[in-house]
Every structure is written in C-alpha cells, then in structure tokens.
Design brief:
Order of helices and strands: HEHHEHEHEHHHEEH
CATH superfamily: Decaprenyl diphosphate synthase-like
Strand content: 5-15%
CATH class: Alpha Beta
Oligomer: single chain
CATH topology: Undecaprenyl pyrophosphate synthetase
Strand order of the largest sheet: 3-4-2-1-5-6
Distance between the termini: 55 Å
Number of helices: 9
C-alpha cells in the first residue's frame, strides 16, 4: 500500500515538473532535426526482470510517444537509430528477434498516418524480408505531411561515408571524369549530396539514452556541428520530461558552428 502511494505521488510530481518545464520552453526555438540513439533496451529488460525481446518491444512502443512529443514542437525531421551494421553480426537467433521487432516498428510508423518514413542505411546488407518492409513503408508514407522519420536500419556512419564516396565516383565515371579530375574538384558538398540523408538538414540535436556518452558512429558526417544530449535513463523508460530537458538544454546553448 505504501509503495503504491509513493509511486503515485512520484508520477504526479514528474507530471507537474514536466508541465513546468514545458510552460517555460520556447518551442519555436526547438531543433529542426533531432537524431536519437535508442540505447538501453536490453539493459532495461534485464533490470526489469524481463526477456531481451520485451526490452526491444518496449523500446519500439516508445517511438510513437517520442514522435508525438516532437509534433508538439517545430521539429521537422527525426532520425531513429534502430539497427546498426554491428548488430547484423549478432547470433542468428538474437538477430532474428531484433529484426522482427524493427520491422514491426517500421510498419507501425507507416500505418500510423501521421509521419513520412525514409530508410537510411545499407539496404544490401539486410535480409530481403527487411528490405521489403522498408520499401513498403516508404511507399505508403512517402507523400504525407508531418515529420519526416528517418529509420536507420543497417546503419553505420563509416559505411554511409564509404557508400557516399562510392556513389560519387560511380556517377562521375559515367559522366566521363577521370579519378584525377574528381579528386581535384572534390568538395564537401559533393559528399553531402550522396549521403543517405541528402537533401535534408543536418541534425541540430543528437540524443543518446542509457548514460553512454559516445556517438558510436551515428551520423558522423552530418553531426559535425550538432549539439549532444546524453540522458541517463534507458530508452524504454524515456519520458516526456526527459525529452523536454533535452530541448531546454539545447535552447540554452549558443551554437558557434566551430571551435
């Protein structure tokens, strides 16, 4: 009885605090593009006494909440790191579970009706079944208004830059340029035009949950001038108040775009 009362009071206090933070937040100054490293699903499951799959499923369910919070601000693009290239090296049984949850999350986003969906990642490294889900999600949700949701599946920052350079060289070869000519005229913009996120603004804010303070290769090129926010909570336990704190922290910073 005492524990239930304590938990009720704690939740009430968190909601009141969130309202206070939200009331003082200038949403017009919110970042236009937020990248999120959804970290801590397995550790959350272990701490909760559940199975790993339950952690993945809880993390997938949290995505819709996050996008709902983003929709209350001026956020235009959200990039969600759902599956890294390193994840593809896991044991087949573990990878099958993870892919199944990721595919379900992508389907849910496309069927929700509010978001556009765009895959970023090395599609050729994924099973055909997963590629099919990603293609269908993009086709279903591609022309909608609302937030553009990049689903990073089979994604690695080094792989993205490698793919961008490969794509650029192939294009210039078709145009008849020699390797020396390409090297002589190469610019930063040339690389950007061949990234998975070409045509999109770079992320203003990158959030990582679970307490880890590193990017692990997430959007290496695009995040050169991003602000980072590292949150202690595991992704399935991420709350609106945590999101608002990230926005408040971002709004308090002076972005200098340099050293």
């Amino acid at each position: 009885m005492r524990n239930r009362l304590y938990e009720t009071l704690r939740r009430l206090a968190v909601r009141l605090y969130a309202r206070r933070v939200e009331g003082r937040l200038d949403t017009a100054g919110a970042p236009k593009h937020i990248g999120v490293i959804l970290d801590g699903n397995r550790r959350w499951a272990k701490a909760s006494g559940g199975r790993t799959q339950q952690g993945y499923e809880a993390g997938a369910a949290k995505i819709r909440e996050l996008l709902g919070w983003c929709a209350e601000t001026d956020v235009e693009v959200v990039t969600l790191w759902l599956l890294s290239t390193d994840n593809l090296n896991r044991e087949p049984a573990q990878l099958e579970v993870l892919l199944s949850v990721v595919e379900g999350a992508v389907r849910d986003l496309a069927e929700d009706g509010r978001w556009r969906v765009h895959h970023v990642g090395a599609a050729e490294a994924l099973p055909e079944r997963t590629r099919k889900v990603l293609r269908e999600a993009e086709d279903l949700a591609g022309d909608r208004d609302g937030i553009l949701v990049n689903v990073a599946v089979g994604y690695g920052g080094r792989q993205e830059i490698t793919d961008a350079v490969r794509s650029l060289l192939a294009k210039r070869a078709v145009e008849g340029q020699s390797l020396a000519e390409v090297a002589e005229g190469l610019t930063v913009e040339d690389i950007s035009e061949h990234l998975y996120t070409r045509g999109q603004p770079d992320p203003d804010l990158v959030i990582r949950t679970s307490g880890e303070q590193r990017l692990s290769g997430f959007m290496l090129w695009q995040s050169a001038h991003s602000e980072y926010y590292f949150c202690e909570v595991y992704w399935p336990a991420f709350r609106k108040v945590d999101f608002l704190r990230a926005l408040r922290d971002y709004a308090a910073r002076h972005r200098r775009y340099g050293v």
